[in-house]
Design brief:
The complex is a heterodimer of chains A (172) and B (736). Chain A contains 5 helices and 7 strands, in the order ββαβββααααββ. With 172 residues, chain A is α+β, with helices and mostly antiparallel strands. In chain A, strands 2-1-5-3-4 form a 5-stranded mixed beta sheet, with helices on both faces. Chain A has a two-stranded antiparallel ribbon with strand order 6-7. In chain A, a hairpin with a 2-residue loop joins strand 3 and strand 4. The longest helix of chain A is centred in the last third of the chain and has 18 residues. With 736 residues, chain B is an alpha+beta fold. Chain B contains 18 helices and 27 strands. In chain B, strand 19 and strand 20 form a beta hairpin. The radius of gyration of chain B is 27 Å and the shape is globular. The chains are: A alpha+beta (172), B alpha+beta (736). Chains A and B meet through helix 1, helix 2, helix 3, helix 4 and helix 5 of A and helix 8 and helix 17 of B.
Chain lengths: 172, 736
């Protein structure tokens, strides 16, 4: 029995410890938002967070997540305080990023991990963090814009001029 | 059903003198009770076959086009909202079920009649004839960039206008006032005399009982409120929170998972499989043998996939077991040589005296261009889920042709089409690949053999190695120049003729032209790939044109403009791209700029591409795209399609190559079938020109022009003329 937390919930998985986390999430936990794209960590469609880091779940055995904290696209909005979407999800809508949409769960999870460590990434940082995620519809320029929009939105959201106090950015 | 092709469809249509009208779109809902219960729920009224209205005044378009990211659902809904005069917030889209009644004849219309208007008097007659043909072809296809320009223009707008008139007529009767004093506004009918209003919902039932006009009055562009606006896509919110359901996400109670391995060499059959080591593996349910594939059905996909790897499989030998890409291209060259030297060929265009022009040419330019096979590599690997019992079959899948899939699955199971139900899903990419039913048929056969519902998922390796590929093609040119550097004659011979038929035809004024083709069949299966034949010929003709311009000592842009003197619309597109792209600037060594023009699917697209060589590596910096689609229903949606089309074509031009080795495909996954990624993606600037001409397509026209502009830019930067894609095969280490 493998124990882990997924999107804040304790889960137990009675599976082969070698099973990739991707298939445990999709089939055992019936959370299909995380996608299968290549099976060899080449496309990023399966990206989730394990203890806050973006990982490719198609090559990560369930055993490696034992005792860990996993966040999937279904839990992304809960990483920020309050109701509603994660700033990246809102930016994805505002910039009309998705086309077919299949890669976008992975894109969003990679982008969220980036912003958690680098709240104001430049183009080089975005390239480095996002080059592992393929978008076959080619929406790279919109993904880049949306990350910058979300970064700005977060900066505004966590800075309240009335009190002149900068709150801790807790969206990672 | 037999194997359909777009060609066969067009031919059939022409023979029958077919054309399009709007009959089905405006067929009253109450005359189709069998269909009505499949597309409406409690409290919803089917006003016409394509329009339903519920008690909350929600107006839903029911249309036969699927969504793979191209934005068709939203653009079509905009078209209905405008013509029926509903508030955008009240609109919804529902994809038509896979029923004969929703066959989309409009695709045929788009190809058949081009932009010809159908005289009103003929509408009822030709409508009937054309519908019959389409139903016979079982087409419900999303392809050919037709959703807006054909189904939308000839179906949805008419359906919306007809429904608006029905609602007005119903209100006129209810209130006892002339229809002429009533207008539709914000999902209500309003009396302009006394200001009273009634919602569409309150009138829907009465409207549904009336006979709609086949020729309702459509809005003029000046009256558009929703068309021409960049409305947020209806499908986007579900694609940022993981709730969008793709075919691969289908959940069917009791289902098992299947992994498949098909014969590596196309045409080989399964001889035997030793599954003794696998049957006892944890979670394995059954090993299923198909004619040309082996399948493991298990509790989960990973177990199935692991077990599949452990099977000892023997495939039959074929005559193609030793074939390589080199062999195939040698075959193509031989076919072309034969056709060029007077052997048999079929003529696309023959005008003027080509031989005479060559006989007294001041100079000639000759070249052969080649492109490889390409896989579609949709992000969502091929998959389908099926349940089969004595009564029939259900299939859960994302498809570009639900009705075609229904008939093909029925034929494979020896069932009637009525016994097969298709549950349509979003597609994680289509690009033409999801118009072929192979994986759905496999899923149905496997589910029947396994005796349980089965979700079949292809591995990425299977997806790359068993695609229906964009054909590899060679194309040979020769051009005769006069003393002033003008083109006197243009001859082109190629092999592999598919659609659209006009793909190799250049728009430039040349007095003597001969464009012809021959056949050079191979064992590699092929299918439509974003922009179909334009994807090859756009590269061939425009890249060769650049080469000719250089040989003639002329500027490639100026030479095009001069040869388009009678085509101001083409000139305008080209000029706008050139101006935004700073054409004519002097660039340093190692930096280059290229230009192209391509008319496809009813739209004109010019591209200007900037490149530079950085430490021996080719970098694409910027792409300017100017498109004249006649009218952009959703400017942002069109812009997104240009960006997408460019990146799709850029991936192909830079990296795309499926090679044949020992009869089978060598590439297998994204490490050796590379994609353009974030760090390589150029800036793309899109210019939209609403010329007011007939509306053109959006999904495909952005793709063909990037490769020729790119190789022209490479020549400009380096002097290296690239005639074979992909560019990754070139060595730029001497350049900067």
């Amino acid at each position: 029995m493998i124990r882990l937390r997924v999107n804040g919930r304790d889960r137990e998985l009675d599976v082969d410890p070698a099973m990739p986390l991707l298939w445990a999430i999709r089939e055992q936990l019936a959370m299909p938002g995380t996608k299968f794209g290549c099976g060899i960590a080449q496309c990023g469609a399966c990206t989730v967070h394990l203890n806050g880091n973006a990982i490719r779940s198609c090559v990560t055995p369930v055993a490696a997540a034992e005792g860990g904290e996993v966040t999937t696209i279904e839990g992304l909005a809960d990483l920020v305080e309050g109701e509603g979407l994660h700033p990246l999800q809102q930016a994805w809508i505002d910039e009309q990023v998705p086309q077919c949409g299949y890669c976008q769960s992975g894109q969003l999870m990679s982008a969220a991990a980036l912003l958690a460590t680098n709240p104001d990434p430049d183009d080089a940082a975005i390239d480095a963090a996002m080059a592992g995620n393929v978008c076959r519809c080619g929406m790279y320029s919109r993904i880049r814009s949306a990350i910058k929009v979300a970064a700005r939105a977060s900066a505004v959201q966590f800075f309240d001029p009335a009190t002149s106090e900068v709150e801790e950015a807790s969206h990672g | 059903m037999g194997k359909w092709t777009r060609r066969a469809f067009i031919t059939t249509g022409v023979l029958a003198g077919g054309a399009l009208a709007v009959g089905v779109a405006i067929r009253p809902g109450h005359r189709a009770p069998k269909v009505a219960h499949k597309v409406t729920d409690e409290g919803e009224t089917l006003v016409t076959m394509w329009v339903k209205i519920d008690q909350n005044n929600r107006v839903t378009l029911i249309a036969p086009h699927s969504e793979m990211g191209q934005g068709a659902h939203t653009a079509l809904t905009q078209m209905l909202a405008d013509e029926i005069d509903a508030r955008w917030e009240d609109m919804a889209y529902q994809e038509a079920p896979a029923l004969d009644e929703y066959a989309n004849w409009a695709l045929g219309k788009g190809f058949l009649l081009g932009d010809a208007d159908v005289p009103d008097a003929l509408v009822p007659t030709i409508d009937g004839a054309f519908m019959k043909i389409t139903k016979a072809m079982k087409l419900q296809i999303t392809g050919g960039s037709t959703s807006v320009r054909a189904t939308g223009v000839y179906g949805v707008r008419v359906a919306g206008a007809a429904a608006r008139e029905l609602l007005i007529d119903a209100a006129s009767e209810a209130w006892g006032v002339p229809a002429s004093q009533l207008i539709a506004q914000d999902t209500h009918i309003v009396d302009t005399v006394d200001g009273r209003r009634l919602s569409f919902a309150g009138l829907a039932e009465a409207a549904a009982g009336r006979q709609p006009s086949a020729t309702p009055s459509l809005k003029t562009p000046g009256e558009f409120r929703v068309m021409g606006q960049s409305k947020p896509r209806l499908d986007v919110p579900s694609k940022v929170d993981g709730t969008a359901t793709f075919g691969i996400d289908a959940q069917v109670p009791g289902m098992k998972y299947a992994a498949i391995k098909a014969a590596p060499v196309f045409g080989a059959r399964l001889v035997s499989v030793d599954s003794s080591d696998v049957q006892a593996m944890d979670g394995v349910h059954k090993v299923v043998e198909l004619d040309d594939a082996v399948v493991v059905v298990a509790d989960g996909y990973w177990q199935a996939s692991r077990a599949l790897d452990g099977l000892q499989i023997t495939w039959s030998e074929t005559e193609n077991d030793a074939k390589s890409s080199d062999d195939l291209f040698a075959q193509f060259d031989a076919s072309l040589a034969q056709a060029m030297e007077g052997g048999e060929s079929k003529t696309d265009v023959e005008e003027g005296d080509v031989e005479l022009a060559f006989a007294d040419a001041a100079a000639t330019v000759e070249a052969t261009y080649r492109v490889p096979y390409l896989a579609h590599a949709c992000m969502e690997p091929m998959n389908a889920t099926a349940r089969v019992d004595g009564q029939g079959c259900e299939v859960w899948v994302g498809t570009q042709n639900p009705l075609g899939f229904r008939y093909e699955v029925a034929a494979a199971l020896d069932m009637e089409a009525e016994q097969v139900e298709i549950h349509q899903h979003y597609m994680g990419g289509g690009f033409g690949r999801r118009s072929d039913a192979d994986s759905a048929i496999q899923a149905a056969l496997i589910a029947r053999a396994a005796g349980v519902p089965v979700k079949l998922i292809w591995s990425r390796e299977e997806d790359v190695r068993h695609d229906h590929y964009r054909p590899a093609v060679a194309s040979r040119f020769r051009v005769a120049l006069d003393r002033d550097g003008g083109i006197k004659a243009w001859e082109n011979v190629y092999h592999e003729k598919h659609e659209p038929v006009e793909a190799p035809v250049i728009p430039y004024a040349v007095a003597a032209r001969k464009i012809h083709h021959t056949d050079s069949p191979t064992h590699v299966p092929f299918g439509p790939w974003r922009s179909v034949d334009h994807s090859q010929h756009g590269f061939f003709t425009e890249a060769f044109f650049d080469e000719v311009a250089v040989a003639a000592g002329r500027d490639p842009y100026e030479m095009r403009m001069a040869m388009l003197a009678d085509k101001p619309r083409h000139q305008n597109v080209l000029r706008q791209a050139a101006e935004r792209g700073n054409w004519g600037e002097t660039l340093p060594r190692g930096v280059g700029r290229g230009i192209s023009l391509q008319e496809s699917f009813g739209s004109l697209v010019a591209q200007v591409v900037d490149v530079h060589i950085d430490n021996g590596k080719l970098k694409v910096d910027r792409v300017v795209v100017a498109i004249d689609p006649g009218f952009a229903v959703s400017p942002d949606g069109l812009t997104a399609q240009m960006e997408s089309g460019v990146i799709y074509g850029l991936t192909a031009a830079l990296y795309g190559e499926v090679e044949i080795e020992q009869g089978a495909v060598k590439q297998s996954n994204f490490h050796n079938y590379r994609m353009v990624r974030m760090n390589e993606a150029p800036q793309i600037d899109t210019i939209i020109i609403n010329s007011g001409e007939a509306w053109g397509g959006a999904g495909e026209p952005g793709t063909p022009g990037i490769a020729p502009a790119l190789v022209s830019a490479v020549f400009d930067a380096t002097g290296v003329r690239v005639r074979e894609l992909p560019l990754a095969k070139q060595d730029f280490s001497d350049w900067g």
